[in-house]
Structures are given as C-alpha cells and as structure tokens.
Specification:
Chain lengths: 353, 263
C-alpha cells in the first residue's frame, strides 16, 4: 500500500463554500493520489457532502480551485468532468431498465452502438447483474440498486469515482459484505475512489487514507492506522473508535495527574502547569493484580463474543472507563467486583485543545 | 349481529340516496336521448333518431368544431406553460407562498369574475373577439390545473436523477428530454386531459369572450341558445355526447395519475 510517491489526481486548493451566513467548507485543501481509496469522514454538517458536490460540479466554490489531473475544473459543468458520482439515493432512472441505465452514460459519449452494448455486457458481468438486466429499478432490492448505481458510474471509466454514503441504506450484514466488495472492485478497475461517510468503521475498513472533517475543515488526514492510533486532537480521538477521556493537568514537573493519581505518559511538547486530557482506548487498559494500579469497581459488563467490555468506575473520571478484556480470560469478572487497572503508557495520548 | 347488519344497511341506503341524488338527473337525460318519442313523458322505444338529426344539424356541427379547436389549442398551450411553471416552482431553492397563491388563484376565482375581467381587457385593447380570445381565456384556468397536477407529481420526484444525468455526461437539454420529461409524462398527460375536459364544457368565459355573431359559438353556448326554445331530445343527445367525452378524458386522467403513484 505504498502510494506515497504518486502524483495527485485530484487537488483541492483552499476551497471555501458559503451558504448564506453559514460556512460549509472553510479553506480546505486536499491532495488525492492516483488509485487511492480515500475517505472523507465526519459527522453530519461537517461539509463533506458539500465538498463532494463541488468536486462533482453541482456546487461552485466561492474561493479556491479544484484541479483534476492538472486541469482546473473549478467552474466546469458536471457533464464535462471526467469523474462520476454515485448518489446516496442511487438516483437510478425509474423509466429505464438496468441495461438502459448503464448504457445512458455511454450514449452521452456518442459511442458506437456495438461498443456500448459490449461495454454494458462486460459491466453487467463484473457487477453480477446479468440476470437483472431487463428489470426496472422498482423491481430491485436495495443491494441490487446499489450495484446498478455503482455499475452505471464505473462504466464511464472515470478518472475518479465519488461515492456519497454508498452503503448508508443497506442493513448491517449487507454493508459489511459490500465494504469488501467495493474494495475488491476498486483494485480490479484501478480507479481512484473518494467516499463520503459518517461511519468511521466503514472508513477504516475500506480506505487507504482517511480525512476527518469538522466544521468545514480537515482535522487530520492519514492512513486508518494513523488516525486510529495517533489521533491529532480530542475530536478525532473521540470520533474514531471508542475512547476513554480522563481530565487532569500537567504539573511543573511535566507529569500528567488526574484525581491525585500520576499517570505515566509522554508529555513532550505540551504546556506544563496546564489542564490536559488523557485519551486511552479500551484495549490499552489491562486488569492487573491488586495494589499496583488504579483501583476501580466494575459497574457493568457486556459480552461481545470475542471479547468482553467492562465498565469500570474509578476516581479518575465521572464516566466509567471502558476496558476490553478477552472473553475467554481465566477469571470472569462479575459486576460489582473490585479491580485494578493498568494503562499502556505508549498508547496513551494527551491533548490540550 | 343484527346491529351490525342494520348499520350496514343504513350505510348502504345513504350511499344509494347520495349517488341517486348525484346521478339520477344525468341518467334521465341519457335515457331520454334514446327515446323514440319526442315527449319526455312517454317512452316509445329505443331509437338513435336524435343522434342522427344531431349529425345533420349544421349549427351544432359548427359549434362542436369550434369547441374542439378551442379545447385542443387551449390544452396544448396550457400544458406547455403549466408544466414549465410547475418545474420552475418546484426547482426554485426558495419557496414563495405568494407565487404559489398566484399560480393557484385562477382555479378558485369565480368564472364570472374572470369572464368580465377578460371582456373588459379585450375591449380595452380593441381586440376583435373570436376563437383566439376564447383560447387565450381558457389557457388561464387550464394552466392552473395543469400546473397543480404536475406539481403534485414533482412533490415526490427525486431530483437527484436530474443530477445523475448531468453527471453521466448529459447536457441540461438532453437531461430534460430523456429523464425529466419521460418521468413526468403521465402527470403531464393527466393534466392535459383535465384541461381538455374543463375547456370542452366551459360556458361563462367562452360566452363573454366569443365576440358578436354566431361564428365562434361553442357547444355549451349552442345548447344554451337551443334551450331557450325548449328542451328538445336533440339537446339530450348532444349533452350525452359531451358528457361521454368529458367523462372518458377524466377517467383516463385519473387512471394515469393512479398508475404513476403505484409505480
């Protein structure tokens, strides 16, 4: 997955978009590399869909430029851009069959009839839609519609495929299947994918790189491992995965303390004598023999099959800490039991924002 | 059990009475149009003689032709304009209540008011009145009906298919003809049929804007002038035909509307 030296296929440069008084996208810059599976991740209203619509050509930025393969496409009409969008609602043409839906984009390129039917046939095969070719969208299930929408966009062989919450309308089982399916397809066709999603798990599973957006700005952009293991700030830490936050402060001696307890953690580069918050994931907290860590009481336990999520009340925070332990561990911890916790210092992060 | 039966019977009786009240006069008219006797009081057997005499009445044929010309042209113009208005209103980002009220108004303004207003306007402008002025006048209320039928369809129209078409490389023009128009077509036809029906049996506005003389008289006006010399069975036959045409158009319009809702 070494994509670091490829040239950007799509460059978003200082783009600003306002709707009346609200700023949807606020001076955002982004380089997307060739053949990359890129995810724009953020809560609703973070500007990710607006950004996608500007790339597709349905909104024009108030400031900044967008370049595709070196060409400025900022003000270009959507039909002239060599990229395609897969709509969240799928937007299949209701009066056309699956086959006609797929052929539409090629007809717009004024290709010869035999070439159109050959490419439609090939795409039907790739997306396993041959049996449904003569059906109308109303006669398809959600998952089938999703495949048709994807096929209709891919058949144009765009430089970049934009996907707006592509799996949003599917149930959990189908989503997980389609996540892998999308990833496989992306490898197969070798097209750059940019996906918009509010589902952090989806972004982590599928993307080569993830940009976390909030209030029209990128908070962090990196590989799934980077944003999960080394979140840039408190928001990213809380948005991706499960995170425990412990409010405290860094003393003159550059040591983080919370509720009188000293927690060993790297505080290099942080302000001394100031408030701070420590973030630690449930899998980085372990149960230890009593006496050598932070004392707490188990208030709740949830069994997840592979592991068990414990909710441990300690003096460190008002909210019980979440601790993940193996389900098949030697001792099954009961609710109400007194436990001692140890933190993996290397995996803890401290934020002062 | 007996109570349930009684409730059911009461309901059925009311239903029969209401529909009888609504349709008995029409049923009598239709029946009398097939009466061999010229007198409404005696039934002397089934006959098509009044329809035959209708077909030989040049005044009536002339009026029927005028009605058809007015209805067809008014419908065509109103359908094009009404559809454009509906699409324009529904794709505007900012909804305007005033605009909606203005588009809706011709449906509720009393015909007589509209008729007087149009007559005043046309005479002020020194327009020679005739079929063209009737057509213009009919377009006014037809347009409102077409617009409201098409807008109802647009309420649950997924505008993302328009964007999808652009995204796939189609110009706005191609997008309209290949995507928007075919999807809206059932509603457009339903609106057109409704407009046609309304135009065919419209009397007051046509009466005020047809000008002097008999050259641009329409069917409802013809019937009105005939009735002043008494109701002849010929009029019954004529009314039956007009009603048949209107009912057919209306049923077709409703069927099309239902058809697209279930899709």
């Amino acid at each position: 997955m070494n994509t670091s030296f490829k040239a950007p296929v799509l460059a978003v440069d200082n783009v600003v978009k306002r709707f009346g008084k609200t700023i949807a996208v606020n001076g955002l810059s982004l380089d997307i590399r060739e053949n990359e599976f890129f995810a724009l991740l953020g809560p609703s209203g973070c500007g990710k869909t607006t950004l996608l619509r500007m790339i597709a050509g349905f909104e024009v930025p108030d400031e900044g430029r967008i370049r595709l393969a070196g060409n400025d496409i900022t003000g270009q009409a959507p039909e002239k851009r060599p990229l395609n969008l897969m709509f969240q609602s799928y937007a299949l043409f209701p009066h056309m069959t699956v086959r006609q839906n797929l052929a539409y984009g090629l007809e717009m390129e004024r290709l010869a009839k035999p070439e159109i039917s050959a490419r439609v046939e090939e795409m039907l095969k790739t997306t396993d839609l041959q049996a449904l070719a003569e059906r109308k969208p109303a006669e398809l299930s959600g998952g089938q519609k999703q495949r048709v929408a994807l096929a209709r966009a891919l058949i144009k062989r765009p430089k970049v495929l934009l996907l707006d919450e592509p799996l949003g309308a599917l149930d959990k089982k189908l989503r997980e299947k389609m996540q892998l399916e999308l990833k496989r397809l992306q490898h197969e066709v070798g097209i750059t994918f940019i996906i918009v999603t509010h589902d952090q798990e989806e972004a982590l599973v599928m993307a080569d790189r993830v940009a976390v957006l909030k209030d029209g700005c990128i908070l962090q952009c990196g590989t799934p491992e980077e944003v999960y293991e080394r979140p840039a700030n408190r928001f990213v830490a809380g948005f991706i995965g499960v995170m425990n936050f412990i409010e405290g402060e860094i003393g003159d001696d550059a040591i983080f303390r919370a509720a009188g307890e000293t927690l060993a953690c790297d505080t290099a580069g942080l302000k001394s004598n100031a408030k701070a918050v420590l973030a630690v994931r449930p899998e980085n907290i372990t149960l230890k023999p009593s006496g050598s860590g932070i004392a707490g009481t188990v208030v709740d336990a949830a069994y997840h099959g592979l592991d068990r999520q414990l909710y441990v009340k300690t003096a460190l925070s008002a909210v019980p800490l979440q601790v993940r332990v193996a389900a098949s561990g030697a001792a099954v911890v009961q609710t109400g039991a007194a436990v001692t916790l140890g933190f993996d210092a290397a995996a803890c992060r401290i934020f002062q924002d | 059990m007996a109570d349930a039966l009684r409730t059911k019977l009461t309901g059925l009786t009311i239903l029969v009475l209401v529909f009888g009240f609504l349709y008995l006069p029409i049923a009598v008219l239709v029946l009398l149009s097939f009466n061999a006797s010229g007198l409404p009081t005696t039934w002397s057997g089934f006959s098509l003689r009044w329809y035959v005499s209708l077909a030989n009445n040049s005044d009536i044929l002339h009026a029927a032709w005028n009605t058809l010309v007015v209805a067809i042209f008014a419908t065509l113009i109103a359908t094009v304009l009404g559809t454009m208005l509906a699409i324009g209103m529904e794709t505007r980002k900012r909804k305007s209540t005033a605009l909606e009220a203005l588009a809706f108004a011709p449906m509720v303004i009393p015909d007589i008011v509209l008729a007087v207003a149009l007559l005043t306007l046309f005479s002020r402008l020194n327009v020679t009145m005739g079929l063209p002025t009737i057509i213009i006048s009919h377009v006014i209320f037809d347009l409102a009906f077409v617009c409201s039928v098409v807008r109802a369809r647009l309420k649950n129209f997924d505008f993302s298919i328009v964007e999808a078409s652009r995204d796939l490389g189609a110009s706005p023009f191609t997008t309209f003809w290949r995507i928007t128009f075919p999807v809206l077509l059932p509603a457009i036809i339903a609106g057109a049929l409704l407009a046609f029906t309304l135009s065919v049996d419209e009397f007051i506005i046509a009466f005020f804007t047809s000008g002097a003389g008999r050259s641009s008289i329409t069917l409802p006006m013809q019937i009105y002038s005939m009735i002043r010399f008494g109701v002849t069975p010929e009029i019954n036959a004529l009314a039956t035909i007009v009603m048949g045409v209107s009912a057919a158009a209306l049923l077709l319009s409703q069927w099309l509307n239902k058809e697209q809702m279930t899709r």
